[in-house]
Amino acid sequence: MSTQDTRPDDTRFDPTKTYKAAVIGAGSGGLTVAIGLAGFGHDIALIEAGAIGGDCTNVGCIPSKALLHAAHAGVDDPFGHVRALRDDLNRREDDEMVEHDQIHLVRGRGKLTAPDGDVHVVEVTDTDGSVVLVRAEHVAVATGAVPVQFPIDGLDADRLLTNENLFDLREVPPTTVMVGGGPISLEMATAFRDLGGAVHIVELADRVMGNDDPLVSTTIQAALEARGVEFHIGTSIERFEGTTAHLANGTTIDDVDKVLLAIGRRPRLDGLGLHDAGVESTSHGIVADSWGKTSVDNVWAVGDVTGNTATTHGANSIARRTIRAIALPIPTVGGPRVQANAVYSRPEIASVGLSMDELAAYPTSGRKRYEVQLADIDRGYTDGVEHGVVMVDVERFTGKILRAAIVAPAAAEMIGMFTLMIDHGIGLRKVFGQVHPYPSYSQAIGKLADDFAGETYRSLPREWLGMARGKLTKRFA
Amino acid sequence: MSTQDTRPDDTRFDPTKTYKAAVIGAGSGGLTVAIGLAGFGHDIALIEAGAIGGDCTNVGCIPSKALLHAAHAGVDDPFGHVRALRDDLNRREDDEMVEHDQIHLVRGRGKLTAPDGDVHVVEVTDTDGSVVLVRAEHVAVATGAVPVQFPIDGLDADRLLTNENLFDLREVPPTTVMVGGGPISLEMATAFRDLGGAVHIVELADRVMGNDDPLVSTTIQAALEARGVEFHIGTSIERFEGTTAHLANGTTIDDVDKVLLAIGRRPRLDGLGLHDAGVESTSHGIVADSWGKTSVDNVWAVGDVTGNTATTHGANSIARRTIRAIALPIPTVGGPRVQANAVYSRPEIASVGLSMDELAAYPTSGRKRYEVQLADIDRGYTDGVEHGVVMVDVERFTGKILRAAIVAPAAAEMIGMFTLMIDHGIGLRKVFGQVHPYPSYSQAIGKLADDFAGETYRSLPREWLGMARGKLTKRFA
Q1: Is the Cβ of B168 closer than 8 Å to some Cβ of chain A?
Q2: CATH number for the domain formed by residue range(s) B18-147+266-327
Q3: Which one in A61, B14, B74, B181 has a CA-CA gap of 20 to 30 Å to A7?
């Protein structure tokens, strides 16, 4: 972790006490569990070797969104501004945890299998080698993830960036190559271009945002190309010669200052003693259900370490359920809420509902697809939007949302309407006639509903049969 | 009308024919009715003396949003850019109407009471004094509104702006005084400041956005003050001496180049022959229900001329219902949809639900108020938002939305979630747990739901009683 470690002392930890829960990791998931359980009156031991706040506060959402804003708004010394904001938040979260009456900080790395074999005793080893044992009724593992790295032939180590050292930059590199076409690259390409840097994105697959709709991929690529980002798709960096990147497709990129590796993240499982403790895990992370429950009683896992989610809101959502599962005798019944994802590139990208694989498995006879280009609605016209779109895949007849995706200036704010529709089973048929403010981008959603209604009402029996056939096919598949 | 009048010829109008409908006015409401009825296969006579597209296309939403975008994006010659966009759209709408097989254009001013006394024969007088009669089964009046004007002592006429000549400017005036603190002033203050002009807003009432929540007023004023707009509240311009405005409170504003009058709009009723035709109207406009039905059978009124709405989406929404009422033997049952309003200042303002008067009449025992400042959510922190807020007034226990208002960068896109909640009777209690993308501004809505749930679950019986008492008080009020 490249951020400063303020390492506040917390002298209140009591090694003889049995805490309600030992929480390993003070990132988004761990903090939510700790603060939530403390709110129910429980004493919590919070184990953290690095900075309070985890990736989100220190090397993730917070500094990245602050950089996007600073770059766009023309703030002086944008990287310094971002570090100041981050360090201030980090200090406040540190203070809050140190001063919290019911959360006792323990500095060091936690390991589940304590010497006496009880997985609910966590062995914590600090950087100086000192060891303490934390006893608890419950253990919540929330150690997060780390960026996947790999060596690039001929590349100087000091040219290599990941999200963990990117925010230590003093200024935007004149030329940056970003490896991977996912959210981190798209967001940082947006910010670096705003700051005047040249940006190349190299993606091995045949498109960026490979887990999303292909129309999302082509739309965001076109939008960023229009802003000067260069894309190298279906290829990879073979080697560097000096500052020249040689790609597998024969292209060269000269005068490269920095290479941002953003090809994915892997769960931080090392040293947790999971295997000995009997906690099941795969290469994607600890196996946990939507309450955070693992294969071992009273051992929970939330956030990136599970591989179920890679977002702060995903970690929070599961963590809130874990709190209820631990604190309430009968946790409120209820399925997990659908989780939208957002990328804060400009335009933004957001999606919600079935994954592309789940959608592909949904019988084609029972679903339909609608798309509205922002250029075809009035706000797209006034604002000169060439690359932006709202797309939905819906159940026929009812118009229930299977999956929705948006590429638009405020996609992260618009997606909530689809989230709400999915959570409450409201289809396009029922929102037909909803009045969206003129001229908002959300009118594209109104147009989707119009298109759906027009097509459906022209042939109700056929649409009803299509829906029914889809449901049957799905049931007996 | 200051815009060019391309005056396309339409030779297809047939004076011997009885049209399904004569639509007077080719603005947002009239075009919607005409195109919608034509879509059902009906022949329509569309009567317009000015430019196709009405205020929205020519002197309203379209040029104002285009100017806001051009000013913010730093487009060269922003006013020229706006005129080019507007004229292009105007030409396309003209062409569309001229070429439309089932919509026959008639140029001139329409009057309901034709010489033979049948209100369904419309007398159309063109600028050259020529008169034609249009016979139709239905007449839809959609003549819109005009800005309220009043004389200012000592002010040169060539310094006076309204929305009707504002977009003819060649560049931003160095100093503009805007009279009235409503949407037009707030939007144009945003654009003019972006273009480097000095802006003063003079509002006679004790706050801007007087029809909205007082917290909206203070928030948007503070946000615009931070961007350099000067507010003069609770006062008015008494007189001009040369280029100096003297306000009633003793303040003077020197070197004023332009004065934008934006104190309201009045319905365009003159010359329609409403009284003789027996169509009821007040100073607010033609009296019409939520289907556009007036006091005379088969005479309809939609849009600004009714005083029921002053927005394009409001006109469209009613017009869509009018189409059904005219074209379908049994119009689909269903109440009117709730209409959100939006102002595209920066930050934006949006609201939906009860009016402030209706809210005040709702029993206080049955409702509660929640507010979340954007500065208190993470995106507000990363983006340095000091002035922004989401507020709701809700029914106790259920959290059903009585009224919601937002001041935020993408308020016009966020408000749709509240619109959807109102249309479908979904309260804060049911959206508790909805996952909003991190870190979006919409997380403020999640926090509202958390605050509501925390308070409600701590005292379910009291909240239930409060709701019940509110409902009873309301019923017997």
Answers
A1: no
A2: 3.50.50.60
A3: A61
